Amino acid sequence: MPIEVETLSGETDMLDDEKLEGLRMAFHGPLVTREDDGYDEARVVQNGLIDRRPALIMRCSGAADVIDAVNLAREHGLLAAVRGGGHSVAGHSVHDRGLLIDLSGMRGVWVDPASRVVRVQGGATWGDVDRETEVFGLVVPGGIVSTTGVAGLTLGGGIGWLHRRYGLSCDNLRAAEVVTADGRLLRASESENEDLFWGLRGGGGNFGVVTAFEFDAHPLGPTVMCAAPMYADGFDEVFRAWRDWADTVPDEVTTRAVFWTVPEDPHMPPQVHDRQVLITGAVYAGPPEEGERILQPIRNLGVPLADLSGPMPFRMFQSAFDFFFAKGMLDSYWKSLFMKELTDRAADLIVSCGVARTSPQTMVHVPLLGGAVGRVGPRDTAFGDRDAHSMLSVDGNWVDHRGTADHVAWVRHVIDRAEEFSTGGTYLNFDSDDPSKAPELVPAAFGENLRRLTEIKKRYDPQNLFRLNANIPPA
Question: Does the pTM exceed 0.70?
């Protein structure tokens, strides 16, 4: 049955039965249309607010399938989205009536313990990576939950639980294999297609479809000391005490403060069920005994209602909150900004907003930056802001569609109030807005690096085929 697919011009193009049959004969992965069983499952992404119906889903099995999908998009001028883990809170990884190039079946991970190099396919999640690297006592710096896709997080930067010790995910990228808009499979590294490699480290999905990543891995654990005390009162004092402690810690400590309401769930202690808490979370990337001593102060900032701290495999801590963020379960609208410092006035604002969240599922969290993140030069990668002290992320999450407008308005209001403390930068991995409707976003994310990024875009994607992202138009 012929299908209509939206084009780059906003019109539609017809893929007839003959074209589709030819695709099926060459393509190794399944082609999924609206009439096929499994279509609704195949189109679901992380953000439940994103309910879009692509015309054709090409579920790639390898780089050759990706090349076929990109060639189809280019030859027919089709509007194409690219999905790895599907965690894009802005919904970039799926589009109504468009083509979906789906890498979620490409999840292979290979570890070379001698060279400490990890090769990862473009559809893998950080849980896939952690599972394999843990065997060798190694780690690649990832995100905050294990279900996050490797591709989206890395291409957008990669703030997580190890960034102060080992840098962002993109800082640990040593090479990538990319299908560019002309259908070529290129290798990008410090010595091959260097400009493309520079752009991939923080520039998002603007330049092609990454089918494989190669990362430097680092020794870790597998057991590390983790802190996760939950305070239910004295928020002002606890948050300020955490801030003061955070300003003293060595690079081995990555820490964040999180305002949240703990759901009634068997994975959590009964005393915290349905309670609003401030979690002072941290990981020590070093010997657990040393970590226990260094992290002890944030377990005594008051009297915790519960304390989930202790030595544990890093992979376990990385996945500890996965249960609460199942795919498609929550509607989400997030905004973030980088902060110059956490002054008393900034702390007061964060605490007041943290306790006034419009939904119990919403999180207000503040990761400490610095350390290895700040030791990379501002022009060494495409990632924009290296000097920020911390980040404020307001992660609006809710379950009732009827409250969407109120929740979105509240998130925007908090960010507007926090602008006076901002460096002017934002973290696009934690931003729900469409850059076409919020043109200030891309300049804020990339700063002075934007000019070079537009030139790289012109070289590798002059027609802006890859535009469903935090888009950088060609120069």
Answer: yes
